[in-house]
Amino acid sequence: MSGMMSASFTQHRFRGTARGIRHIVTSSPSRFAIVIFAALILLFTGLLSLPIASADGTVTPLSDALFTAVSTICVTGLTTVDMSSHWSPFGHVVVFVGVNIGGLGVLTLASLLGMVISKRLGLRAKLLAAGDTNPLRAHGGVVNESQTVRLGEVGQLLTTVALSALIIEGTLAVLLYPALVMAGVNPISALWEAPYFAAMAFTNTGFAPNAGGVAIFADDYLVLTLLMIGVFLGSIGFPVIYTLAKHVWHVKRWSLHSKLTLITTTLLFVLGAAVFLILEYDNPATFGSMDAGDTTLQAFFLSAMTRSGGFNVIDMSDLNGSSMLAVCMLMFVGGGSASTAGGIKVTTLAVLSIAVWSEARGRQSVEAFGRRIPSDVQRVALSVVAWGATIVALSTVAIAQITKAPIIDVLFDVISAFGTVGLSSGLTETLPDSASYVLAATIFMGRVGTVTLAAAVAATSRSQLYSLPVERPIVG
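^ that's the sequence the OP posted. Answer follows.
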């Protein structure tokens, strides 16, 4: 009898726990996503701390294991250890699996896990998933049905996310294998390096499995071009991939989000390359010793990597100060929404730019491509920039105070961490434990996203049923 009562009590507690998890998933999927990412970081920290994960069979220090786990799950690419020599084959496999999990995106991953746990997505979870992966993010006002992803399509869209990642990475790996072999890589080693580089390119992580990294392919146009393509596809975002897959030859049917993402990404890519050509053409440590063809390719490659790619052929510390500042600005913007890239996102920049232009022309509404951008989207864009700038500023001050390092080096690595880029001035590898924890927190906040953090906090906010008298302060 007592055994039956104990079993019944255990079953009751299990059901209660399941109901509690289901409630968290359906009522606040944004906070659930944060919890999931934090749990994954702890799990991978434990795996990377195992003696089997290091090349010399010793336990990796907690600060290094934690930082690598954060950088892996948050697909960043910054590291406090030499990735090619420190980790064993087991450690490299852990990193490879981690970046693919992280590359699915924080809300996408949370929605998939929520679907498994709750058997079905609740209405709020569906709305949130539709909002994050929707070509036109769902908002508080009325949305034209033709411009949204129907709730019934969310499952299909989430499946597309996983399949697109698998197909793109697989195709990149197949193309990279002969390119690596022709570049002099051992055919057996290339069997591992091709999918590794493919995953790191598409997830915009930037880790390299080989000694010397991408720098050994500095003169190989094919390898560098394939890596740029992988980074571009990863940085435009799953909503754009989803739209292109459905309407690739019908530009008029592209969503406003897709148009803004592709146009802004292309403009930043070209303008960034032009800026680097102008600023670095006479720098003997970077482009000054190259011919015109190499200089042009390297300028475009550097511009592409600032999207969040993280691969680098030239040493970032060799750049002129003006170029490092330009890299910082591009890294802060990052890539597309719901993508493997970080930063404030190109659509945020596009919306704010259009709003400023509309204000300068005295227009009452903000419009683009025959569509009106509602005021709540503009407020979210402004909030994202404000929160991002605040995170970068606080982290920069903290790390500069701890390390006493040159401020440009600190700012460079902090923005790289926030934008989950992975480029480094060389500072990250020399950070003391306290500073590495601050940088790891910056990476986490950059990957989870300021909008997600804001949504998690706002989940408990109450509606205001009254409005206060209007008074206009002087601005400007």
